[in-house]
Design brief:
The structure holds 2 protein chains of 2 kinds. By secondary structure, chain A is mainly α. Helices cover 71% and strands 1% of the residues of chain A. Chain A is globular. The chains are: A mainly alpha, B mainly alpha.
Chain lengths: 635, 86
Amino acid sequence: MPLDGLNAAPNRSRAAWALGTFALFFGIGLAALLLIARGAAFATWGDGGYWAIGIAAAGAVALAAGLMHPRISAPAIGGMALAANTVGAAFFLAIPGAIYASGHDGLAYALGLGAGFLLLQLIVAPRFASSGAVSLPGLLTARFPGAAVAWLSIFIVSASMVAMLSAGLIAAGLAGMRLLGVDFTTATVAASGAMLACFIVRGVGGSEAPNSVLYPLMLVAVAVPLVMLSAEWYGLPIPQLAFANSLWQLQGIEENLLEQDLADPAFMKPMLTAFLTLSPINFVGIVLGMAAGIAALPNVLSSPLSGTSQRVGRHTALWGLGCVALLLTLAPALATYARQTMATLIADRTPVAELPGWIFTYGKLGLVHVCGQAATDVATVMQACAGLPDASPVLRLQDIIVDQDIVALALPEIAGLDGVLMGLMAVAVIVAALITAHAPLSIIGSALGFDANDVFDEHARTVRLASYAVSGAVIIAATALAILRPAGIIDIATWAVVLSAVGLFPAVVSALWWPRANAWGAAAGMVAGVGSMIAYLVVRHYFPVPFYELTSTLSSGGRIGLEAFGELRDAWMSAEPGAAKDAAWLDLSEQARSLANWWGIEGPASALLAIPIGFLALVGVSLVTPAPRRAETTP
Amino acid sequence: MAHDEQLPAQRDSSAASRLPVVALLLWGLLAVVVPIFAQALNLVDVFAFPLGYFMIAQGSVIGFLIIGFVSAHRQDRRDARRSAGG
């Protein structure tokens, strides 16, 4: 049975092996070269040398991919590319950072990513792979013909991918800042220029399989420092096991800090205590929202998953899960080691003059704040700490704030390892940001109809130029968002994934599993999913009083919240018109805002409400409108 | 099973994977139930980790991998049987 017809040819599998070996050698080779080449060259170039290497390596990958246009469907290589594309620069830095800052609750993002890959393998990847669609917008427009679904999918895919690109650009910008010593805007603009150059060199379309070279590089960059620390501190070179020691030590140190009044219990979030930042329903909401989003992420449902067989699709996703699992299980170890070093610094009552150099390195960039001031030098820090209203003779845990987005990048320096390991980490971040941008840019371009794959098209040149213009516009939008930096990387990347979850997941699942679903239903599901999430967020924030009055039975505030609200409302009703009434209204709104929710669901966890609403709308509208013609249900 | 008269596309979809219900239930267990009961699970220790923390940091992801592996190989076997029988 020719189900595997596409990859039955023996030269394909030989090419796959060749590329796989090349991928491993390139990734590990680049890392090894950096490790060996420390010293002479880099001493004279300074850290800027790493930046140049990162850009050059990304350019080399883009050029090779653009020249070779390999069509590989070997699951192991596809899985590495899938993992690298999904984790990207954003989650690579942000997940350890979130665990560092929020302790246990930061693990929700890692868990969601892992859960998403299994969901992808179980229900989306096999059928998507054999559907013949090249991309997610391609699947939706083939299965649900008509302008409505086409435009909705372009809109949702673009919004989600712009957010994802900007999260990657922030990561690359932070790495560039550290390496070049320039400000964030300059570093980000430089990265976005390089991103566009890489895209132009590589061209629209083509396989994402060459991105598999990124995975070994990312793994080595994060694993080498952790293995070294595990071996050095605990004599066990397996970070996933060795960090249990660190976890217990950290708990002991942090308890001591609390006893000695060196840490604020509101600031310190112990690693082992759950639900300090997120309530259980929001934790689960983020896990499920991320999972559904990963399973419907446009840059995941693309090559190398597309255009193969069910079997290859399934195994590609499985390999992707394996690769992601290896990276994800290192993240808590990284966060714990960084936290332990910081807690030890405080517990040793390190005086300001003896603070380690990295605090000032990153302080000069505005990424480490001590006593509320950027830690540019010892004098500034001393002045800032003496000027605190509750000034303390020694530094306390909450006095040193490390920007959570740079914790992973700075770990080698925080833990006092060789500087080349920081360089390696930064190279991995830059390469990841630049070459994983190809899939989102390519997908948006081809969804708009600028697919230059067809070289026989006499308009190929115009189409290619148009695709560059579109990519340029997308990158400019992503850069603008990155420079604004409205939130941390983890929040932006999570919103990008959650937007795909609420907008695309119901449509993708029904396209693959429910022949009765039609274009009307899919469009309704997409509108209802995104619309209900935006409505929930906007109405809760801007109209909390009517929202709470209408739905107070669903609020997590309970009877006590209702009584407090009632008192404030009476105060507002009885207040004299004028300033007093306005002030009472502000109090009332403030109170309502803390109560205006359904079951306590907040932020990205609102996917928990929006995904079911999207599914209901899709099923309901599909059933009341005519069934699709038979030819459309088997794309 | 004489499906020879069917179109290739239809045969593909009838031979296609059924919803892997058991795997999805286990997925839900690891992604939803375990996080909610993390604090209770912390009373038990495994590999020197408290169980609840271990599951969320590593155990569930390893569990996903095992579920994925077993499920993929069961599907492969089903596909092989079907293509041999059909």
